[in-house]
Specification:
It is a single chain. The protein has about 450 residues and is α+β, with helices and mostly antiparallel strands. The protein folds into two domains: about 1-155, no CATH class; about 285-459, Histidine kinase-like ATPase, C-terminal domain (Heat Shock Protein 90), CATH 3.30.565.10. The protein is built from ten helices and seven strands. It has helices at about 1-20, 25-50, 55-75, 80-105, 105-245, 245-280, 295-310, 335-350, 365, 425-435, and strands spanning about 290, 320, 330, 370-380, 390-395, 440-445, 450-459. A hairpin with an 8-residue loop joins β4 and β5 (about 390-395).
Length: about 450
């Protein structure tokens, strides 16, 4: 009987320990507390009054039945059902043993060994199940703890995600604002760049104007002179016709025809110069056309020279050319290539007119004649490249310092005094040759000796 009371007391303690903090089940708190007092009373009765042991035993069975019923019928105690199944065999054996004692004590004494064996195996069953249940409970608690940690982690991650989303939204708004600001700045920069490029074109056109005026004056002088001669020859022809001198008339007619050819030649020359100026001044249409590179280089060389002479009467320089007459017309954009050639030649004249900066400056070095060389050549094809056409512009100026060599093709970089250059000439020239024509623009310089720019274009 003591075992049944102990089992009931043990189960009640487990239930109270589990649910004493559960404010949602106050009714079970009172019931379990009452059953605990009943178990304590039964312990006291059995210890003090032997004659009451049978009665207290059946009361203990009733208490156990009530406790097991509470566990079985109420879902809030479902976690203790494994404990119920662990002690149930031992309780059943004890209950059957009490029944046999009540029916016939003599018969019970004959078979009590069976009950002792059954109680032993039931006890082993209870211990085994309690151990297993305890392990399962620990595993469940561990799993619940892990699940709780994961839930906390998920909540934390969700909180961090929400914060990150807010930060991303703020950063996106900031980046959008910066993007709009940059787009506005880029638009302004493109407008400014277009204005500077147009300014560079107008500056080069201004340099050409004086040279063109000088160049066009020569053919105009020839045209005027031959026109005056033809006027005199016509008067002589009239006199010869009046005299009937046919031979004299034919001779004068031949002279007039020859003069007309010369007038036509120089007229075409003047027309060519004017067309070249118009071609240089208008915007490029981006269409490549067969172009005589030698003729283009020769025209811009003389126009650049006379343009500089018009701006500075004291300027003087020698011009030397070596054109390869076997170069066929090549497909280029004449306006763009003309601007490149003009820019390189103008820079060469400017550099050649500068004093030498060598440490051992000599009188001969300071009084050297500024000279610009313009040469062209047809380069045979190789395994890596097809036929190329090279155009070289060289001067005998002071050269380019090594510390600025990597900057000369950068936009807005110039070594000229303020107001004499925009710093866009070489940058535009590099883009025209490399990007617009698939060619190369290289530079070789030696301080105190001069600089050489070489253009390579596909033939």
């Amino acid at each position: 009987m003591d075992l049944q009371i102990f089992i009931a007391f043990f189960i009640i303690l487990r239930l109270r320990k589990k649910f004493k903090t559960k404010t949602a089940f106050p009714q079970w708190e009172k019931i379990l507390l009452g059953l605990m007092f009943v178990c304590i009373a039964l312990f006291t009765v059995q210890a003090s009054f032997n004659f009451l042991k049978p009665l207290s035993g059946w009361i203990a069975n009733g208490v156990v039945a009530v406790v097991l019923g509470i566990i079985y019928l109420n879902d809030e105690f479902s976690s203790e059902r494994p404990t119920m199944f662990a002690v149930l065999p031992l309780i059943l054996v004890s209950f059957v043993e009490d029944v046999f004692k009540l029916i016939s004590i003599s018969f019970y004494n004959k078979i009590h060994y069976f009950f002792e064996a059954a109680s032993f195996f039931a006890f082993i069953w209870m211990i085994a199940l309690l151990i297993i249940n305890n392990k399962q409970r620990k595993a469940l608690i561990k799993e619940q703890s892990k699940t709780h940690e994961e839930e906390q982690k998920n909540k934390f991650m969700a909180s961090m995600k929400a914060q990150l989303e807010i930060q991303v939204a703020e950063r996106t708004a900031e980046l959008t604002s910066q993007k709009e600001t940059l787009e506005e700045a880029l638009t302004e920069l493109k407008t400014t760049q277009a204005q500077l490029i147009q300014s560079e074109k107008l500056a080069s056109l201004g340099e050409l104007t004086a040279g063109i005026a000088h160049e066009i004056q020569n053919p105009l002088n020839f045209i005027n002179n031959f026109s005056e001669v033809n006027t005199e020859l016509i008067e002589e022809m009239k006199e010869a016709i009046a005299k009937g001198d046919s031979e004299e008339v034919l001779a004068i007619a031949a002279d007039i025809a020859a003069n007309e050819q010369k007038i036509n030649h120089h007229g075409k020359r003047a027309d060519s110069i004017v067309k070249g100026m118009l071609q240089h001044s208008r915007n490029s249409n981006g269409i490549k056309e067969p172009t005589d590179i030698n003729k283009l280089a020769d025209e811009y060389l003389r126009l650049a020279y006379h343009g500089l002479r018009a701006k500075d009467k004291s300027f003087n320089a020698a011009m030397k050319t070596d054109f390869d007459r076997y170069i066929p017309p090549i497909n280029v954009i004449p306006q763009d290539i003309g601007r490149v050639i003009l820019n390189l030649i103008t820079n060469a004249f400017y550099a050649a007119s500068q004093p030498s900066a060598l440490p051992d400056n000599t009188v001969a070095a300071n009084h050297k004649t500024p000279t610009v060389w313009v040469t062209t050549a047809l380069i045979p094809p190789t395994e890596d490249e097809g036929t190329l056409v090279s155009l070289t512009v060289r001067d005998n100026g002071p050269g380019i310092p090594a510390n600025i060599m990597d900057k000369i093709f950068q936009p807005f970089f110039t070594t000229k005094p303020t107001g004499q250059g925009t710093g866009l000439g070489l940058s535009m020239s590099y883009d025209i040759i490399t990007k617009g024509h698939g060619g190369q623009l290289t530079v070789h310089t030696s301080e105190g000796t001069g600089t050489e720019f070489t253009i390579l274009l596909p033939a």
